[in-house]
Write a structure and sequence with these properties.
By secondary structure, this protein is an alpha/beta fold. The chain has two domains: 16-94, Winged helix-like DNA-binding domain superfamily/Winged helix DNA-binding domain (Arc Repressor Mutant, subunit A, Orthogonal Bundle); 112-342, Vaccinia Virus protein VP39 (Rossmann fold), CATH 3.40.50.150. Helices cover 47% and strands 13% of the residues. Strands 5-4-3-6-7-9-8 form a seven-stranded mixed β-sheet, sandwiched between helices. A two-stranded antiparallel sheet has the order 1-2. Helix 4 crosses helix 5 (61-73). The mean pLDDT is 91.
């Protein structure tokens, strides 16, 4: 048979996965809206109809039902045979105050400030200036210093991450009685409070930028009152306090490119004499595996602050360029690794 007589095969359609990736923002905003309306928390109290939920939030039942139907299809909430909506295990992660709540992450990641920054990603790639700065005319941390609401959202999200670190990473870090721990850029003191609690006889210094409102972790504030800790204000780009026995950089260096991170490390070297320990707690990517969550996180650092995620090898190269020597790298049962480095001897 002549091939010309055969009907032409239809052209292949667009890749389904690509279509799903393009449209993923729709579900993202449905999740954000559900959290804002308090739907997951309401369902924790028991099954509810769309009408009952709409009455509770002061909304229109027919519109809310369409939102809820999509969340059912995405397995974020459930629906029983009577048509009532109910909580499923995933729902609990969208309830404020739950031990594993992702609400701080929702509010931080989906902040409109960030959305406007992502719109400038192409310009960043051309110019090299962080997209957040292009969108808002100010570097990320400078903006937080003048926007109390944005600072509060950032602090809550950082506290949630610190809580995860406390449960996994902190157990791998030990200090001796009498040592002073300096937490460089330690936020509200959540991580330092737990390090001090787990290591009796130690004292701590929280080194942070001055803020319009000082909101410390309550446990850290208690340690300040007890005389085991204090707050020292300053920028690690200008100097790092001397006098510590151990310096912790938790999720700090990934905020910056190699040049800016090098300035921080140079100040650390200038402030110390040689026997001090330096500890990095950070995500360390595996370049051989190329996990989407890692490359996505790397882009977030780039867009917001011009930073980057690094592999353990890249951290070691960065440290070597600043005159330090990597002593050990310890993986944990989390995305975070613990890298300890020292002055060369």
């Amino acid at each position: 048979m002549n091939d010309l007589s055969r009907p032409a095969a239809p052209p292949p359609g667009p890749p389904l996965r690509l279509l799903q990736q393009i449209a993923a923002y729709r579900t993202t905003y449905c999740i954000r809206t559900a959290v804002e309306l308090g739907i997951p928390a309401a369902l924790q109290e028991g099954p509810r109809t769309a009408g009952e939920l709409a009455e509770r939030i002061g909304g229109k039942a027919e519109l809310l039902a369409r939102l809820l139907g999509h969340l059912v299809n995405e397995e974020i909430i459930g629906r029983d045979d009577a048509g009532r909506y109910l909580a499923v295990p995933t729902t609990r992660a969208l309830v404020p105050g739950h031990p594993h709540s992702l609400v701080p992450w929702v509010r931080f990641e989906l902040d409109p400030l960030h959305g406007r920054a992502w719109e400038r990603l192409g310009e960043q790639i051309k110019s090299g200036t962080p997209a957040f700065e292009l969108a808002h005319g100010s570097p990320f941390f400078s903006w937080l210093g003048q926007d109390e609401a944005a600072q509060a959202r950032f602090d809550i999200q950082m506290r949630a991450i610190a809580t995860a670190l406390i449960g996994v990473a902190v157990r791998h870090i030990q200090f001796s009685a009498g040592e002073t721990i300096v937490d460089v850029g330690g936020g509200d003191g959540s991580l330092l409070a737990e390090l001090l609690r787990r290591n009796p006889g130690t004292s701590g210094v929280l080194y942070e930028l001055p803020r319009a409102t000082e909101a410390l972790n309550p446990h850290f504030a208690e340690l300040v009152q007890a005389g085991r800790a204090r707050v020292q204000h300053g920028s690690f780009f200008d100097e790092i306090p001397s006098g510590g026995d151990a310096y912790v950089f938790s999720r700090i260096l990934h905020d910056f490119d190699d040049k800016a991170a090098g300035r921080i490390l140079a100040n650390a070297k200038a402030a110390t004499q040689g026997p001090e320990r330096f500890i990095v707690v950070d995500i360390m990517v595996d370049p051989a595996r190329g996990r989407p969550n890692e490359t996505s996180q790397d882009l977030l650092m780039m867009v917001l602050m011009g930073g980057q995620e690094r592999s353990a090898g890249e951290f070691s190269q960065l440290l070597a360029a600043s005159g330090f020597k990597t002593a050990s790298v310890t993986p944990t049962a989390s995305p975070f690794h613990i890298l300890e480095f020292r002055h060369p001897r």
